[in-house]
Amino acid sequence: MMLKHKLKGLLGPLVAKVFHVTGLRSLFRSTREGVPILMFHNVGHPEETGYLPGHMKISEAKLRRLLGMLQKSGYRTWTMKQLMEELAEGRVPDDAVVLTFDDGYRDNHDVLLPILQSMGATATIYVQTGPMKGRLNWLHHYFWALHEIGPHELAERLAQEVEQAHLKSDLRSLPVQTDAAEYEMKRLMKYEVTPADRDAVLRNVFEALGGVDADLARDVYLGPEECRNLDKAGVEIGAHTVNHLILSSLDATQQRLEIEGSLRDLESWLGHGVASFAYPYGRTWDYDEETLSILKELGFQSATTAMPGLNDASTPRLELKRSAVNEDSDLAQVMCEVDGVYRWLDRRGLNLRAS
Ligand SMILES: [Zn+2]
Fold first, then answer.
1. How many A from CA of 285 to the centre of ligand 1?
2. What is the per-residue burial (b if ≥16 Cβ within 10 Å, else e) of 264-280?
3. Regarding the domain delimited by 2-128+225-347, which CATH topology (the fold level of the hierarchy) does it fall under?
4. How many Å lie between the centroid of ligand 1 and the Cα of residue 102?
5. Among candidates 290, 300, 282, 283, which has minimal Cα distance to 253?
6. How many angstroms separate the alpha carbon of residue 136 from the centre of ligand 1?
7. Ligand 1 centre from 259 Cα, in Å?
8. Element (H, E) at 99
9. Would you give per-residue pLDDT tens digits along the chain (355 residues)?
10. Domain locations in the chain as residue ranges
């Protein structure tokens, strides 16, 4: 298993480079039979989002480079809504690529919008609406505190707080290596503490360190005004729940509050309907049948996951695939996904995707 993983790690970039440099990748485009949807979060490196992890970021220069490569290869960017209308007509456009940005960060307005406008491109931004009312989710408290004091001191402080929080593992026994410690602590917080306990202990630590929800939310997230500006500029605004919780961990009533809440918030800010949705976290186990039936009932045209791959006429509209792109992504590999090289190889039993 390890060997297979290592081999894939070596082969993936190598194959992508060969297909990219020789131009071979463009031969796959006419037969790709699917549309790529790319997933991003932060754009640029504004000071305000300095505490968010690197895998959520792409620099202005790298995004421009990718958009340039897409243009040169003859691609046009579409919004999710435009793509859904096209697919509903039974057409799978071979020049389409969709850029999506999750969570609704302010840099999507300040940094991304000028890039899109200067390059004649568009995008869909999935906004979680809770932060606009001054409420941040536990992940922001976690990332912010981690940035302030590092994993080991944070674990120490959390351990003091979670004495009565039914934690299965010992926070103080984190690996010494920083990356591994961060990974392990996030896993513990996500899966081994009840959501209520986790939220409470992280909020306590965040506030003890001087964090203020309303201030951080205002600095980091889009507000209604920015959403309207983006909307007027032809960028689609989609919904991403109110509080960014794992939907499958909630009962039907809570799920509805999260999904419908963000839909109604956005409708009131934009003055029109909202057609597109993205699942928080986006893995297949992060939503369930209940989620799908609520989305259907509320009239969403599409919902995107974070499972990689292309989307064709047979891909369920409420379980569309997306490929994550960030500053560390190999653009030759991204282009192989966009052109359908990975899909072609995958169908022949060779999965070389980066994620
Ligand atoms: Zn998200």
1. 15
2. ebbeebbeeebbbbbbb
3. TIM Barrel (3.20.20)
4. 5
5. 290
6. 12
7. 13
8. strand 96-103
9. 466 677 777 777 888 888 788 877 777 777 777 899 999 999 998 888 999 999 999 999 999 999 999 999 999 999 999 999 998 888 888 899 999 999 999 999 999 999 999 999 999 999 999 998 888 888 899 999 999 999 889 988 888 877 655 665 667 778 888 888 888 888 888 777 788 888 888 999 999 999 999 999 999 999 999 999 999 999 999 999 999 989 999 999 999 999 999 999 999 999 999 999 999 999 999 999 999 999 999 999 999 999 998 998 889 999 999 999 999 999 999 998 998 888 888 888 878 777 5
10. 2-128+225-347, 138-208
CB < 8 Å & 24+ apart, contacts of 284-289: 284/319, 285/248, 286/246, 286/247, 286/248, 287/247, 287/248, 288/247, 288/248
Q: How far is the centre of ligand 1, averaged over its atoms, from the C-alpha of 236 (Å)?
A: 16
142 Cα: distance to centroid of ligand 1 (angstroms): 15
41 C-alpha to center of ligand 1: Å? 8
Question: What's at 205, amino acid-wise?
Answer: V
Spacing, Cα 65 to ligand 1 middle (Å): 24
